[in-house]
Predict the 3D structure of the following.
Amino acid sequence: MKRSAVISTIILIFGVCTQVVAEEESVNYSGDLWSRSTLMGDWGGLRNDLAKKGVTLDLNLTQIVQGDIGGGKRTGWQYGGRGDLMLNVDTQKLGWWPGGSFMVEVEGNFGNSVNSYTGALMQVDANQIFPTTSSNEVNMPAVMFTQFFSNYVGVFLGKLDTMDGDANEFAHGKGDTQFFNLAFNNNPVSLLTPYSTLGAGVIILPTADADAATISVSVTDADGQANSSGFNTVFDDNTIYSIEGRVRTDFLGLTGHQLVGGFYSSKDYTSLNQNLRFIVANGAIEQKDYTWAVYYNFDQYLYEPKKGSGQGWGIFGRFGASDGDPNPVHYFISIGVGGKGVIPGRPLDGFGLGYYYINISQITFTGPIQTRTALGDEQVFEGYYNYAITPWMTLTPDIQVINPAQQRLIDFSTRDVLGRPIPVIVKDHIGTATVLGFRLRIVF
């Protein structure tokens, strides 16, 4: 059985294309310890000089303490974290050639999480699953080159970090800046697409403004992994074809965005529905030779004191649909509210409240006597508040209430006389879990 990466979706490198086509602007790292944007400052002026020449090196560390305080499969607390290093090079600012940029990302995680405690399909600590779900790994999930031939059209290729897709003003990221739960950061219908993979694509900017309207079309390897170069699988004909478009709106004179996307994968996946007769007759489990999904999201400010400032509050939502087999996420919907700088005197604080519902495709096994099922639908509520201690340090308390997809806890460690696993129901009902967490993010 081929391995499926369990993370997120379609390629859209908004940050890079904005960097390429924007006016000549440079990040300013200067200031005293309490007012500058990063802990390490401007390195005696060197960091600002490099930024003016198109070279930026940014490092952040996110640590999370999180505990299941009731319900789920088990209770308890865990501590873990992730570091992320990003190098961006703008070839035009560097004096080489116009329209080009390089991006390299190095990422590592450490410690543990309570992701396996709740019985939920979606991880309650998204930060901990990057670059891989295993802890104590350092990988290079992204090495990408982008080239714009005009203000309207560009291409990109390389090892791609696909979490940049499905962008949303109030609910997006890797669990390090806004919501903790993966489902609020990226649409779960993309569960079967790899997080880090080789690929290439085209970016179209209809108005030459990346935030106003962007269309991305890409072709990627369906077997990509963050801890592999990908060259050993890229030519195996397991391919994902993706398209995504995002447009800025101006309803009621307030900033908003509408996004729609979809993908088709030609990879062979394990079917969710298995029949003992088929397995015995064919000597193999049933397969599905493709999968597809479509998704939509929106964000809309309802209060925006200064247009385009990123300050104020508004609503967001997502919807997704898939074939339902092999993808266990058949339908997904989320809705919520988020904002930043809504409390006087606290311009860098942010908050979010969200709810999601996943209609799960049942994993079934049909035997000689009966058909068994393993999962039910999943519902989650999450609320967080980002308290900015300084511009470079943020402390975030978070709460999640989870009605998990997993219905019962089954142990397969018991074996019969022939060595075959015997399923034993350890817990017949997995109840609603309550998870508390605290996040500390430092930008260096």
User: Anything to note?
Assistant: The first helix runs from residue 14 to 21. The helical segments are 14-21, 46-52, 182-185, 276-282.
